[in-house]
Each structure stands twice: as structure tokens, then as C-alpha cells.
Amino acid sequence: MNLFTKAVLKFLSIVSLIAQVLFAFAGLILLFASGALLFVSNGVRKQLLQYADLNTNTDLSVWFLVLSCLVALAIIACLFIIMYALHKMIDNIYKQHFFVSQNLTYLKLILISITSFTILQFISQLFFAQAHAYNVSGIFSDSSPSLIGNILLLAIIYTLYVVFKYGISLQDDSNNVI
């Protein structure tokens, strides 16, 4: 493995570790915020609901916000898991452990997390549509290209999974012959 590849892998490992820390922090903040929604006074709650433009039934609106926060927390958890598995896989590749069962497990974890992320993103779109809030952020994008991009990413990750699975079987056959 040449020096450039090692430097890129080390950089990606550090970036994925930083992303894990940021997602964990965001998850803790979001968990705190969704819990706080249940315990704030009615005056603060009404102001928050006015700000969010949810002037319907106050009790239902609070539960709607809490459910939205929990879906967002699940999305952040998926992103954290993706970064964790990516970090571990990059470390294995840096150590030149390419076709090992751990990498296949990490790819499967990434595949499941991206699938969950796509489903949760669709659920969050439904929540935002119910609240008549569109284009809230880049993470909760309500555009078709975003969904197509996620499906394309799933196809790429699945293809990598199949390649790694085949590579592991070839590696096992090679190890048994020698």
C-alpha cells in the first residue's frame, strides 16, 4: 500500500471518528430536547408550537413534536452506526485485512443502517408534511433526487457487499488449497 493511500485512509478514519463524536453529541442534545418538551410549562409550550406553526390541539402537537424528535434521534443513530462501521472497516483496510468476515459484517451494518435511514427519512417527510413544513434541512430533504440518491447508495453498498462476500469465499478457498 503506497503512502498516499495510507494518508487518505488515515484521514478518512479520523473524519469518521469526528463524525461519530458529533452524531453522539447531536443525539444527546436531541434526546434532551425531546424530553424537555414533555416537562416545559404550558406558556413556553404554546410559544414553541406557535414558532413551529402548529396551532392545532396542544397535547397532540406536543406528542407530534416528541415523535418527530425521536425519529430524528433514530436518524442520527443510523448515521452514528454508519460512521462507526465505516471507521472499523477503514481500520481493517489500513491494516491490509481486506477480505475478512469483519468487513462483511460492517458492510451489512452499513447496508441496514442506510436502509433504516431512508425509511426514517421518509417517515420524517410525512411528519413535516403533516405540519406543513417543507425544506426544513438538508438531512430531512423532501426531494425525489434525495430518495433516488439513497436508493443508488443502497445499490452501491449492496454491490460492495456481494463483492466482499465473494472475495471472502475466494480467500477461504485459497487458504484451504495452500
Strands, helices and their partners?
Elements: H1 3-39, H2 42-51, H3 58-94, H4 101-130, H5 144-177
Helix pairs in contact: 1-3, 3-4, 4-5
Offer a few descriptive terms.
mainly alpha, 5 helices, 178 residues
How would you characterize the overall build of this protein?
The protein has one domain (3-177). The chain is elongated. Helix content is 83%, strand content 0%. With 178 residues, it is mainly α. The mean pLDDT is 85.
Helicity level:
over 70%
Order of helices and strands: HHHHH
What is the total domain count?
1
Strand content: under 5%
Question: What is Rg?
Answer: 21 Å
Structural class: mainly alpha
User: Which stretches are low in confidence, meaning pLDDT under 50 for 5 or more residues running?
Assistant: none
Main beta sheet: none
| Tally of DSSP β-strands | 0
Question: What is the global morphology?
Answer: elongated
Structure at a glance:
This protein has 178 residues and is mainly alpha-helical. 83% of the residues lie in helices and 0% in strands.
